[in-house]
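User: Please fill in residues for this 223-position structure.
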């Protein structure tokens, strides 16, 4: 019976931290510990219920034997009053048997009652320890989750601005500068091309005006 308390005592003791140190995932291990404790408590409750049932059974048998002894005592008196010594003797003999049984059953009942009380006390102790461990588990789980979150955040922050990232940004900056230079060169070439086209177009426009001027002079007879 006391074996089922072993795991609980171990968890309450200093070995819990050592177990957590070896665990890959403390949160999962804590949940596993709680499930084991819950199983222990269920086993203890079943044992207590069985002991209580045994206690009540012995109490009933003890009370029945005691009542039968009292009944045989009263019957012996009646037999004597009726003048039947033989019947009275047999009633007293049976009374002695039931009295002996009652004494034995009373001792067994009292022992079972003491054991049941002790088991109830241990069960209450287990439940109290379980509740304490549950609070501790919730606290440890919260701390573990917080620590994991901080670790992830620190790793993410440490990767920002690292050598690879910095080199990558430098390469991209060079490419952007190259694109901008190519765009400026393209704009210059386009501007140069437009200037030449504009001069040629202007020349054509001047030729048209000269032709128009000559035609006008001819009409006026000034050629």
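Assistant: Residues filled in for all 223 positions:
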């Amino acid at each position: 019976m006391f074996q089922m308390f072993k795991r609980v005592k171990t968890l309450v003791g200093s070995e819990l931290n050592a177990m957590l140190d070896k665990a890959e995932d403390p949160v999962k291990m804590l949940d596993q510990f709680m499930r084991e404790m819950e199983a222990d408590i269920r086993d203890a409750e079943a044992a207590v219920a069985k002991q209580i049932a045994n206690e009540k059974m012995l109490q009933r048998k003890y009370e029945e034997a005691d009542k039968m002894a009292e009944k045989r005592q009263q019957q012996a008196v009646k037999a004597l009053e009726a003048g039947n010594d033989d019947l009275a003797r047999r009633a007293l003999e049976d009374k002695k048997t039931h009295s002996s049984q009652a004494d034995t059953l009373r001792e067994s009942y009292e022992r079972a009652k003491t054991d049941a009380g002790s088991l109830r006390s241990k069960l209450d102790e287990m439940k109290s320890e379980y509740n304490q461990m549950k609070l501790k588990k919730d606290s440890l789980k919260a701390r573990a989750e917080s620590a994991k979150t901080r670790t992830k955040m620190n790793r993410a922050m440490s990767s920002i601005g690292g050598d690879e990232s910095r080199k990558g940004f430098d390469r991209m900056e060079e490419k952007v500068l190259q694109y901008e230079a190519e765009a400026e060169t393209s704009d210059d070439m386009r501007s140069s091309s437009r200037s030449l086209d504009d001069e040629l177009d202007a020349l054509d426009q001047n030729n048209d005006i000269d032709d128009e001027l000559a035609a006008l002079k001819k009409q006026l007879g000034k050629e």
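For context: The two ends are 140 Å apart (CA to CA).
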